Amino acid sequence: MFTREQIILRRECEVTQIPSGIRSVLPAGITVKIMQSLGGSYTVVTEYGHMYRVDSKDAGLLGLAPQPQPPEPKTEKQEFSEQLVWEQLKTIYDPEIPVNVVDLGLIYSCAISPVEQEQYKIEVQMSMTAPGCGMGNVLKADVENKLARLPNVKEVRVDVVFDPPWHPGRMSETAKLQLGLDLDYSPAESALPIFPDRK
Questions:
Q1: Which residue(s) pair with 41 in the sheet?
Q2: Any idea which architecture 7-62 has in CATH?
């Protein structure tokens, strides 16, 4: 969802600053626009150009109904599988870029190992599009929380790493098309900033 309509916050709202990741509060009466609503949260921008993430539980403060959540995979009929893990990871989105973390190439590895009978441990290594991005802990928590909801998952460990550095060549073809990038974009071109406003 993207809207150019100005929305006035009905009450003060807890938010996460983007890209610093610092928790803060927007006061009642401030005007915002919704830039993105994916993965269970909203990215809004204020009249001063500052960007924030608003959790789905606070959708009412934007005058919206909470986003419908994807069906919970934790059902008796659904068995744990590697495919289920990857499907769940694809429900997590970068707050500045309308692409999920898998297609964006932020998931470097995902190892699944049994820890006891029909119980599993998931270990994920992921990166950020920029080393100084303060949203690392926010996205890490998103991954931990969503994977922990899967059936038969006993433990989830997520590490944010920056070696090797992320580059646009890691993105899937779907992501490149969505962002209007050349499909032949190579790691050698990664010296050119794809997201120049990121610090």
A1: 38, 55
A2: Roll (2.30)
Of 149, 132, 34, the closest CA to residue 91 belongs to 149
The model's pLDDT over 143-163, given as tens digits with 9 standing for 90+, comes to 999 999 999 999 999 999 999
Q: Is the peptide bond before 164 cis (omega within 30 degrees of 0)?
A: yes
Predicted confidence at residue 192, as pLDDT, reads: 39
Rounded Cα distance between 34 and 43, Å, is 6
**pTM, full prediction:** 0.79
Q: Which residue has the tokens 């950020």?
A: 128
Residue 3: other Cβ atoms inside 10 A: 14
| Inter-CA distances, 141 with 100, 137, 138, 168, 178, Å | 15, 6, 5, 23, 26
| Domain boundaries, given as residue ranges, for the chain | 7-62, 82-191
